[in-house]
């Protein structure tokens, strides 16, 4: 059947009819809210590169902020630590009294299972050199360079994940893109009896230019070199399926594609290849800050463009969206803005 009998516009003639047949629905329960917790401060610090975002001290204000998220319907948070002490091995990352560990214990004590606590498992925030693993010196003749030692890094990532699990984390999220990281963490958790702690793997994490504001927020820019030897080449799509397949085989419970906007095709391909696994997409700092900057200049409507972006990520196939816009977007959804704008 074709025109004039078939007229798709019939189902677009008013907002409630459009909403009735909408294929994609967004909810605050779809969001994970990333939060930076910082050691050595007694009040929240503004992050200049990410307007509206803060570094939070571990204390009452952090609990109140997370409670605000819960009141808006956002049930999950992802914690990133900003420590006082950094060294070559990132030892603060697996210190049981580290900033993330203390934040997890506090949130679980005050809010219990009302909040699902995810923790980022990496070393880059904690190392003096800013890389995601242990550096080793490699020489070929007179030419020497420092490279990340994959297998030695696995031992430390397992220690980080285990310390987070002991603190009460519900889900650990390894982000370093080391080969074998999911298996190393799964074995360490299971050996210590934490079989119920899930792993959300940054399975397809690209070496992206969209991470710039995050590096200011977490103070984790590499002091030399870059992360292209372990994060993925933005030109590759098939490789993402290989990376995801390996993490599935190693025991990942939730998969992730990062960033989101420039990789909607990858999100779709992962969803189709692994339909039985929850899939997260990270709407990263650069994506967030670009919207904020354009809105500040009056170039875009922040509310409308943000909800359009988030709907596109879910439409591509993500069940879960990690986004710094989680609280604002939840308010806008509660106001029914998604109904009015589409």
UniProtKB/TrEMBL annotation:
5-aminolevulinate 1 binds at residues 215, 227. PANTHER family: DELTA-AMINOLEVULINIC ACID DEHYDRATASE. It comes from Ignicoccus hospitalis (strain KIN4/I / DSM 18386 / JCM 14125). One of its GO terms (biological process) is protoporphyrinogen IX biosynthetic process. The lineage of its organism: Archaea, Thermoproteota, Thermoprotei, Desulfurococcales, Desulfurococcaceae. Signal peptide: none annotated. The keyword Magnesium applies. The keyword Zinc applies. Keywords: Heme biosynthesis, Lyase, Magnesium, Metal-binding, Porphyrin biosynthesis, Zinc. Homooctamer. Its EC number is 4.2.1.24. GO terms for cellular component: cytosol. InterPro entries: ALAD, ALAD_AS, Aldolase_TIM. This is Delta-aminolevulinic acid dehydratase. The active site is at residues 205, 258. It is an enzyme of class 4 (lyase). Pfam families: ALAD (PF00490). Belongs to the ALAD family. One of its GO terms (molecular function) is porphobilinogen synthase activity. Pathway: Porphyrin-containing compound metabolism; protoporphyrin-IX biosynthesis; coproporphyrinogen-III from 5-aminolevulinate: step 1/4. Zn(2+) binds at residues 122, 124, 132. Mg(2+) binds at residue 243. 5-aminolevulinate 2 binds at residues 285, 324. It catalyses: 2 5-aminolevulinate = porphobilinogen + 2 H2O + H(+).
């Amino acid at each position: 059947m074709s025109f004039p009998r078939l007229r798709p516009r019939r189902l677009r003639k008013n907002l409630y009819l459009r909403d009735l047949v909408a294929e994609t629905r967004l909810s605050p329960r779809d969001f994970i809210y990333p939060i930076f917790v910082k050691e050595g401060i007694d009040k929240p610090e503004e992050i200049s590169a990410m307007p509206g975002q803060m570094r939070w001290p571990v204390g009452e204000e952090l609990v109140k902020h997370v409670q605000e998220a819960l009141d808006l319907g956002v049930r999950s948070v992802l914690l990133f630590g900003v420590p006082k002490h950094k060294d070559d091995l990132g030892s603060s990352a697996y210190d049981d009294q580290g900033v993330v560990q203390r934040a997890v214990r506090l949130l679980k004590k005050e809010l219990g299972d009302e909040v699902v606590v995810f923790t980022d498992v990496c070393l880059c925030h904690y190392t003096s050199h800013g890389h995601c693993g242990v550096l080793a010196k490699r020489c070929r003749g007179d030419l020497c360079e420092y490279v990340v030692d994959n297998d030695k890094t696995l031992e430390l990532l397992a220690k980080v994940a285990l310390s987070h699990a002991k603190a009460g984390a519900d889900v650990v999220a390894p982000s370093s893109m080391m080969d074998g990281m999911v298996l190393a963490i799964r074995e360490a958790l299971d050996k210590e009896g934490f079989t119920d702690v899930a792993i959300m793997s940054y399975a397809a994490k690209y070496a992206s230019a969209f991470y710039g504001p995050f590096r200011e927020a977490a103070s984790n820019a590499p002091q030399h070199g870059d992360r292209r030897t372990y994060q993925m080449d933005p030109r590759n799509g098939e490789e993402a399926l290989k990376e995801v397949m390996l993490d599935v085989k190693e025991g990942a419970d939730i998969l992730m594609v990062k960033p989101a906007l420039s990789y909607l095709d990858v999100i779709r391909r992962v969803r189709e290849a692994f339909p039985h696994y929850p899939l997260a997409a990270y709407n990263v700092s650069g994506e967030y800050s670009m919207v904020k900057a354009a809105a500040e200049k009056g170039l875009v409507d922040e509310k409308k463009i943000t909800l359009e972006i988030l709907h596109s990520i879910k439409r591509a196939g993500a069940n879960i969206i990690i986004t710094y816009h989680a609280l604002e977007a939840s308010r806008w959804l509660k106001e029914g803005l998604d109904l009015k704008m589409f």
